[in-house]
Write a structure and sequence with these properties.
346 residues, alpha/beta, FAD/NAD(P)-binding domain, D-Amino Acid Oxidase, Chain A, domain 2, 2 domains, six-stranded mixed sheet, 9 helices, 29% strand, disordered N terminus, membrane, FAD/NAD-bd_sf, oxidoreductase, transmembrane, transmembrane helix
């Protein structure tokens, strides 16, 4: 791509082209703003590309979706899905989850139902009917029929392509090193290729946000929460939807690729493939055809978790011209984030 221009006082400059930055770039461009998106690597090259990319309610506790912003996220994602032209690996097979005890699973379902969420309680026989490849069947499980998985890299690329169709400019290989100011106002960033200016700067760079904000004396509390994405090859689809159990969290990315998410122990400094071993053992014993699963790779990446575990969206206090954008889980919130930022900036 071409290099970004220098001073451009009429544009919005978005730093980061992961799912948050790509969604913001798309919504702002669609709203008619002049938008430039800068990415240090390539689209979805950070934690987004290593995301399990679960879109739905059964990923988290009911309380997580008790606020209006998160409640509206699924609806906004649906609108976004209808707007994007190219496919982005969406697989709507629902999600089946269960806890280590039946009582916990029932409480999980009851809590979601109390908030009006579309989550059902399945018997073991119903679980097997939906996922016939399971060898170990729980007594009961939660089922979210509307939950889905996407290809996060394809999703980001499509958002950026559509943003460019609406007039946005996207530049990869441009590392933002620090913020530029004029008086008390942020007016751009210093990049590896020189200064780039904008009338409003949107920091959507995940765990890099605190460092960039610190260059203008601003403290932003975002925790780096490591996660491991495991990618395996399968001869054919072993599961139909998303499965989250005490032993693994898995789904098919495509017909011959199965992905799994694994927590990273505090202080872990070993090879990510070590983290994949328990999941691989569980897959090979608990899935029909699991003995044919082969590990392709395992990657550890840092999820940006705003302090307090609530989306960080808004203008920075005490620093004019700077907008902060970070949230987790960002995939399901992508449409809601883009819509909120577009509302705030127009």
């Amino acid at each position: 791509m071409s290099r970004p221009s220098h001073r451009d006082d009429g544009s919005v400059l978005v730093i980061g082209a992961g799912i948050v930055g790509a969604s913001i770039g798309y919504y702002l461009a669609r709203a008619g703003l002049r938008v430039t998106v800068l990415e240090r690597d390539f689209a979805a090259g950070g934690v987004t590309g290593s995301s399990f990319a679960w879109v739905g309610l059964a990923k988290s506790s009911a309380q997580t979706y008790s606020d209006p912003f998160r409640r509206g996220a699924a609806e906004e994602f649906g609108r976004l899905e209808r707007e994007l032209a190219a496919p982005f690996g969406l697989r709507r097979g629902g999600a089946i989850t269960w806890e280590d005890t039946e009582a916990k699973t029932r409480r999980f379902v009851d809590a979601h139902r109390a908030l009006g969420h579309r989550i059902e309680l399945l018997s073991g026989e119903q679980v097997l009917a939906r996922e016939p490849g399971l060898r170990h069947i729980p007594s009961v499980a939660a089922y979210a029929p509307g939950d889905a998985g996407i290809d996060p890299t394809a999703f980001v690329r499509e958002l950026l392509r559509c943003a460019e169709e609406h007039g946005a400019t996207v530049h990869s290989g441009q590392t933002a090193l620090s913020m530029l100011t004029e008086g008390a106002r942020v007016c751009g960033v210093v990049t590896s290729d020189g200064p780039v200016y904008g009338s409003t700067i949107v920091l959507a760079a995940g765990t890099a946000i605190p460092g960039l904000a610190a260059s203008v004396g601003l403290t932003v509390e975002i925790d780096a929460s490591p996660c491991c994405l495991i990618r395996c090859s399968t001869p054919y689809p072993l599961v139909k939807g998303i499965l989250s159990t005490p032993d693994f969290e898995i789904r098919q990315l495509d017909n011959t690729t199965l992905i799994a998410a694994e927590d990273v122990p505090i202080g872990f400094g070993g090879n990510a493939r070590e983290l994949a071993e328990p999941t691989l053992r569980a897959l090979r014993t608990q899935l029909v055809g699991g003995e044919q699963v082969d590990l392709v790779d395992a990657v550890v990446a840092d999820r940006p978790i705003p302090r307090g575990d609530r989306p960080l969206l808004g203008y920075a206090e005490g620093v004019s011209g700077l907008y902060l954008a970070a949230a987790h889980p960002a995939i399901i919130l992508a449409g809601a984030i883009g819509a909120r930022v577009a509302q705030d900036l127009t």
